[in-house]
Amino acid sequence: MSTVKKTKSTAKKPAVKKPAAAPAASVATKAAAGAQNHDGAEGSGVRRRDFIHVAAVSFAGVGAAAVAMPLVSQMSASADVLALASIEVDVAAIQPGQSIKTSWRKQPVFIRNLTPAEIEEANKVDVGSLRDPQTLAERTKPGKENWLITLGVCTHLGCVPLGAAAGEVKGEYGGYFCPCHGSHYDTAARIRKGPAPLNLAVPEFAFISDTVVKIG
Ligand code: FES
Hints:
With about 220 residues, the chain is α+β, with helices and mostly antiparallel strands. The chain has helices at about 1-35, 40-75, 80-85, 115-125; strands spanning about 85-90, 100-105, 105-115, 145-150, 175-180, 185, 190-195, 205, 210-215.
């Protein structure tokens, strides 16, 4: 197979490239002849031009590298940006019924340990009746349905809803309440009432141990 391809490529090359290659070859031959036949001023002139050409190319190469370095360093993320790319939170101290607020990529995040009653409340809802239909299971991890992790950003206009801190109003559905324009979220942080079009967003997350969750 490979033999056949090689034969074809060598057969085509002369037909296409010969006319263009001929002058270059003749120039190269003349230059070489000049260098060989004139060991005096002209021969050293050719070598000097060659040196200038090589030096110019080398310098251009260094220049390109010098320009490329800042671009590469600009493209690589700084350490603090990388640190914000994901966070790890130990949730062991969050009791059922409690929530905490944390921050990830400069956005508030709610981590909530749902009680059995709150899980039941979320599961008995007719999902088809929801504005943004999702089950609690779809918004949590298998075996960890009590851990509801969402962005603390109202999907209406971006306010931070209430309900994550102790004593805050949780709204008519026991989840979160955004007082800006009156959006109510249920115990699965799904929109149930008010102008917000979508449920509170669930970020990418995974439990990396029984109690430590990695967000991002
Ligand atoms: S921003 Fe939350 S209801 Fe308007």
